[in-house]
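Worked example

This section walks through a single chain of length 146. The input is the sequence exactly as stored; nothing has been trimmed or padded.
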Amino acid sequence: MKVVLIQDVKGLGKKGELVSTSDGYARNFLFPRKLAMEANSQAMSELKNREASEKHRIETEIAAAKASAAKLEGKTVKMTAKAGANGKLFGSVTSKDVAALISNQFGIQLDKRKVVVDDIKAFGTYPVEVKLYNGISASMFVMVGE
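Given that input, the structure is written out below as tokens.
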């Protein structure tokens, strides 16, 4: 019997998959526990619609990430910080600071975990990598001055 899984079932498949099981397993275990539903025409159309909407959502996210990458690629964000007499900063510039700068200057909301930056503890210009989506990233620079 063909069934569409409503929840993940260990040893059988993940949620939303179309799997083939024995009639007894489906009727006596999967259906009473609301783990699966019979693969009739309505269930199949729901499955196709769900897959199409997921594909569309992923394509939209990839397009947005590429647009953001094009907007950020090669740009420089400027930041001011306090430092001692020898140019060494009090503290350091973190990925959280860089994400806030990008958000303010370019209007792109980023999580601090998506910004890859080495420890910045002195004045100068430093390379930064911004990971926007799986396989899509932008290289930019952070200029730290007084």
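What to look for: The chain has a mean pLDDT of 91.
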